[in-house]
Amino acid sequence: MHYQLSTLSNGLRVITDSMPDVRSVALGVWADAGSRDEHSNEAGAAHFLEHLLFKGSDKLSARQIAEAFDAVGGRSNAFTSKEQTCYWARLRDDDLPLGLDILSEMVRRPAFRQTEIDSEKHVVLEEINMNDDDPTDVAYEEFAQALWKGHALERPVLGTKTSISDMTRDDIHGFWARRYHAGATVVAVAGRVDHAAIVEQAEAHFGDWHAADSTHDHQPATVTSRVRVRPRDTEQTHLVIGGEGLPSGDDRRFAFGLLNHVMGGGMSSRLFREIREQRGLAYAVYSFKFPYADSGGYGVYVGTTPTQVEEVLHLIAGEIKKLVADGITSDELERAKGHTQGSLALSQEDPNSRMIRLGRDEIGGLEHLSLDETLTRYQAITLEAVHEVAADLLTGPQVIGATGPHEASELEPFVA
Prior knowledge:
alpha+beta, Cytochrome Bc1 Complex, Chain A, domain 1, 16 helices
């Protein structure tokens, strides 16, 4: 087995991946809490907590947390998604107990000081402003809200300026009290680790934490053709066009990953060659996929001169139709498999990548596959399997999210 997993009596899970030839560790404390779990008065609370917990507890101040990591040459930060929040640290192996002590204190006993809540609101509002100034981020957000309209996944991770400004201490504390507990927490560690020692340390830091049930609003998405545009006088139009993809646990995800690579996942992909290399219509063009527990998405991003939007959308539609009609070639399949094999192997050399995979899969209820097991799944994919996924997913309703000098009505014919 390439990992070790233990569960404390209160339900908290500890999962480790040993890399004895390195002298560092990557530590992550994962909370089963994201923007999809927020109530209407909590929009943005999951991400706000990510900021606020670094302000410390009654025992530790923000300065003490920062100085403790600086003193050992460590790094610490966090990230929030629609489904999970991870507080992480990169440390020398001997300093792992320090990292676990600090992260457990942050997660279990945040201070919720009103003055710090007020100051951090300004920071988060500036983060929203920063994203609003990035046209790529705007296009992606418009795409997500078009794709999942009325679904829990529609909610922006950052919240909105109004929701952050109106959020009270009770709102933030209420989200933390509901979503942060032992049964919804995973401690994941990769690097030079001793599993038994980490379990013992986790018991000391988390063993008396209360357990509770975590529920989610998991339900199928209802996707209909839709266009959302944030009109702006920009030099480029930034477009994301796509539709519903696969949930995270779907067995077809391996075939879909190879399809995505051929479509727009690299410099040899169809979209890159056609739109950038042959026609020079864009600097950036690529396809992507993102899976969640009950739904997923796929899409194509492109930034192009506004007068070229119609031509670019026709080219994207043409490449998608070819994939649906004919699938991919045997040469493309082998290149995609080779790319996957190489990129996965390289990621295994990084403790942080391995920690993130461990924590993400455990908190999401996914099976833990070793590198060899994963590669075997990819190697077993046939041309027919890729074609079936293309015919199934790429023929569904499509949505567009965009920003640029356009109105939604101009782009609606491309998703009709």
